[in-house]
Amino acid sequence: TNVDTTTSGAITVTNYANNIVATDAAALGGADTDDVTLTTTSTGIVSLGAVSAATSGDVTISSVGTITDITGAQDDVAEITADVFTVSAATAIGTGSAQVDVNATTVNLTATGDTYLDTVGSGGVAITAALTGGNIVIDGRNTANDGGYEAITLTNVDTTTSGAITVTNYANAITATDVDTAGGAGDNVTITTTSSGGMILG
Asked: What pTM was computed for the model?
């Protein structure tokens, strides 16, 4: 419900054949080693409320199931706050109606299904993603679609077997360094900035 390290220390939670519900987990020391790591094995999903690692700390999640937002709704409130946010395994990340909101400098995602990510930081975010199936949807707009947060850099974003890639930002730039789909029917890449915001293609 509420698990914190206030001056220093990492948080590591592992569960086997059951879920992890991370309502509030915070490593507040601020050092590079003050990380939060959540892992399910065999079966089990990870549900996110507010998971944070202050300043230089990282958040890493490995789930044999999905990774979801506890609220089940769009709210523009970060479920993840970290220097680096890494998903090393998941069957899906977020949903079309409840994306995972992330405030991080760097995001690294690996999944086998649909991934829905909202960027809600302020200093710019660099994203690497590799999906073996499913679509990638990255959105930098607020829930009303009339405001934005930060520049988005697509460092290396790929769907390797099937799936489209859709990236949208509002009043901030998108840099598409390396973006690829498998190229089958419907496996399109759509990159859009609205209001203002340039686009740089790699």
From this structure: 0.97
